[in-house]
């Protein structure tokens, strides 16, 4: 599973993406 690898660096980007999508929805 590569989720652990990008889980540390993509977590910041995903958090920003989720915040933007949550506000748009």
Automatic annotation (TrEMBL):
SUPFAM superfamilies: Homeodomain-like (SSF46689). It is found in: Nucleus. It comes from the Eukaryota. The keyword DNA-binding applies. Residues 2-25 form the Homeobox domain. One of its GO terms (cellular component) is nucleus. Its main location: nucleus. This is HoxM1b protein. The gene is hoxM1b.
